[in-house]
Amino acid sequence: MVNTRTPLIAGNWKMNLDHLQSIAFVQKLAWSLKDAKHDYTAVEAAVFPPFTDIRSVQTLLDADKLELGLGAQDLSAADSGAYTGEVSGAFLSKLDVRYVLVGHSERRTMHAEDDSVVAAKVAAAHRHGLVPVICVGETADDLEKHGASAVPVAQLHAALAEVPSSAEIVVAYEPVWAIGSGQAATAEQAEQVCAALRSALVEIVGVDAAAATRILYGGSVKAANIASFMREPNVDGALVGGASLDIDEFASIVRFPHHVGT
Ligand code: 13P
What we know:
By secondary structure, the protein is of the alpha/beta class. It has helices spanning 19-35, 51-63, 89-94, 105-110, 115-127, 140-146, 150-159, 187-205, 207-212, 223-230, 247-254; strands spanning 8-12, 44-48, 69-72, 99-102, 131-136, 170-173, 214-218, 237-240. An eight-stranded parallel beta barrel has the order 1-2-3-4-5-6-7-8, surrounded by six helices. The structure holds 1,3-dihydroxyacetonephosphate (13P). The site of 1,3-dihydroxyacetonephosphate has 14 residues, from strand 8.
């Protein structure tokens, strides 16, 4: 398989930064990357702010013609109607949102989102022209009982149950034990699971689509370890939590091809 995949560095802000803070943050991040002459065609960068920030960030990206991508952290499985508190993919598309996280482990555990909910949300994203960033990953307990790949691969199969193989997706492998723990997986561990996920994609969507799909690693990614992950053939970027809230750190992660000796 020839690798033509553009790396994607995605910043999941989680429930941080209000809409005023988001404007200042995105402005500074864009300046920092511009100063460094960042080439977005070589490494794509995207931010995933809370819902209440999205309109502000969209307006800024549009007005200043910034090349940062925009993502949301969740969407409803439904398109409209009596779903108090939910946000439709239709609304996100109207705000020029391109990506949407689906099945983040925090949603799976704190909001009881099971594989069928994740599959319905992936389908909703596809219906509205959004690219779902499908998050999969094993807990420490799963790792001990089933090894690293079994749970993420099963989650990926389930997530893709309701979309055609032509649907554009991004997969994010986030071992739950590595999220926010400061203890990232090793590059070898990440590669092992990302390779298994790509093999699963070959079965589910075929060789060409599998070769074109980006698989990210997430879990305690920082400037000091990004280059090691990006050297692995099946790791096509990162989903960054805590370190995406620090402008210099995130800009440095985006600029991983310039890291030397890490
Ligand atoms: P951390 O980078 O803070 O470990 O979070 C990872 C994550 O959950 C991104 O979605």
